[in-house]
Amino acid sequence: MGYRNREEAGAVLAEFLAAYADREDAIALGLVRGGVPVAAEVARRLRIPLDVLVVRKLGVPWAREVAFGAVGPGGVRVINHEIARRLDDEEIAAVLRHESAELGRRERYFRRGRPALNLDGRTALVIDDGLATGATANAAVAVARSLSATTVILAAPVGAADAVARLCRSADEVICPLTESGFGAVSRYYEDFHQLTDDDVTALLALSM
Q1: Is 154 helix (H, G, I), strand (E, B) or coil?
Q2: Does residue 45 contact residue 98 with C-beta atoms inside 8 Å?
Q3: Block means of pLDDT (10 residues each) for the chain, length 209 residues?
Q4: Which of 35, 87, 90, 146 is 20 to 30 Å apart from 121, CA to CA?
Q5: What is the spatial distance between Cα 44 and Cα 14, in angstroms, rounded to a whole number?
Q6: Fold that domain 57-109 belongs to in CATH
Q7: Which residues contact 97 (CB under 8 A, 6 or more apart)?
Q8: d(CA 107, CA 57)
Q9: 176-183: which pairs have CB atoms within 8 A and are 24 or more residues apart?
């Protein structure tokens, strides 16, 4: 089982999130970049606002798809110590510097013309296109809580079973229609998994304003 593209995945995910349709307190937060088209489709079908949540994965230098943690706005940092212990302090510091700088750049870029994200009293639907290690999603949950979200729902079309289990300990609820133990890469579950550009993301956000 898989999805043709992120839009189809968002349509399927919206069915599992139907309880949040037309909720005045609900907001769909797409993780940059791949989670935004999924979240945009969820927001459109549930008739709720769309916004962006910028979180940067901390990738192992020799295998960047493997995350040893993630960073988010407001100084939020999540570290997977089981993986991070394979790196020395200099390697960790270098990745942190690079990803923190990129986080700041993207925050400035994607929030142009948009007010600072305020989740006070809101139900935040934090949405990504897939959960491999769950490190980025875990940081996103922490960011949403730091922004005073009342409830944080983590939703993704597909995810690794162990990542979903870990996220159940941090999010109020995890919605993941397709979960597998022998997971591999998120791209395996999409026919079209092209890399999105910053312009792709801003175009989707502009449609929601």
Answers
A1: strand
A2: no
A3: 94 98 97 95 97 90 82 82 92 95 90 84 97 88 90 97 94 96 89 93 85
A4: 35
A5: 9
A6: Ybab; Chain: A; (3.30.1310)
A7: none
A8: 14
A9: 176/131, 177/12, 177/13, 177/16, 178/1, 178/2, 183/132, 183/159
